[in-house]
Amino acid sequence: MHFEPRATRNDITGALSNPKLFSYGVEAYEAYKKQSLSSDIVDEQKKVQEADLVIFQFPLYWFSVPAILKGWMDRVLCQGFAFDFPEFYDSGFLKDKLALLSITTGSSAEMYTKTGVSGDFRYFLWPLQHGTLHFCGFKVLAPQISFAPEFASEEERKGMVASWAQRLKNIWKEEPIPCTPSWYFGQ
What we know:
Layout: H1 24-33, H2 39-50, E1 53-59, H3 67-76, E2 98-104, H4 121-134, E3 139-140, E4 144-146, H5 154-169, H6 181-185
Parallel strand pairs: 1-2, 2-3, 2-4
């Protein structure tokens, strides 16, 4: 794929709206409206537009997404394409689409509990599921989390894959999670 994760001036193919003071967010928004975003961004936006469900599959890095996925989100889900003001959250432009995070971790499930050393996994989901996906309007499905597959036995890994495959067979019957603070942080 060779996707460039860095958000730079090269993302805008036309003239800048303010060449004296480059502001990436402003310039990307203006470029989207003028259809002058770089072709790699436009190609990815077309994929999102054509999808009913977007699955983000990634290993958890430092309790977040890898840099290339963060860059993809920064560049592709720009203002004008994914949201505007006041069209965000339930009114975001991707409100007719589903999104799902499929995550692998390097640690056990026990480490991601309220009493675990890393804290409840839902705390780490808030910025991604609520702050990014739901902000853009996506209806967010419950995450698929495979805990520490590299340390699991072959049988346990096969179970993880089988569970994921079974879930995918019924994915269209699932209801989105409520992207509210109480879902993530409790009462």
